[in-house]
Amino acid sequence: MHDEKKVPWYDKIEKTLVVILFLIMLVILFVNVVTRFCFSYTASWTEQAARIAFVWMSFAGVSLAGMYGSHLQVTVASMILGEKRAFYVFWIGDMIVILFGLFMSWKIFGVMQTVIMTKQTFPAIPWLPSWILYLPGVAGMLGLSLRVVQKRYRSIVSNRKEGQAA
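^ thats the sequence. predicted structure below, dont judge the formating
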């Protein structure tokens, strides 16, 4: 019997979103290519819809990177400084990433509010409000910060359990 930890549902959000959006984008672009070359017809909304899906997918990936610790960090620090000193450098780096994610989420939210107030829509999809394109930036950057905090918290809890077990 395998002793695998059950992954909580909230740790699957970004990965599921990336897969679904990638499939949607793939289908939209495939149908667009087929209709273009077989029927000499291209729907005007397909490129805009694929672009929206790509932006949503990218920011879900930003949040996912925070969960896996794959965000920008200088891993060469552990080779140069040694594990003990590099530990502190990575902590400082994570604090910078957390603050940056919160700041960017706040700034993008401000832009999104402006777009909402001006009631902008997409030219090719006039029924869809343009703020939909900014929402993943807010969620993705906020998600990055929260996921880095979550990863650090889990690391602390894990280290304490190992310390108690020894």
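The radius of gyration is 21 Å.
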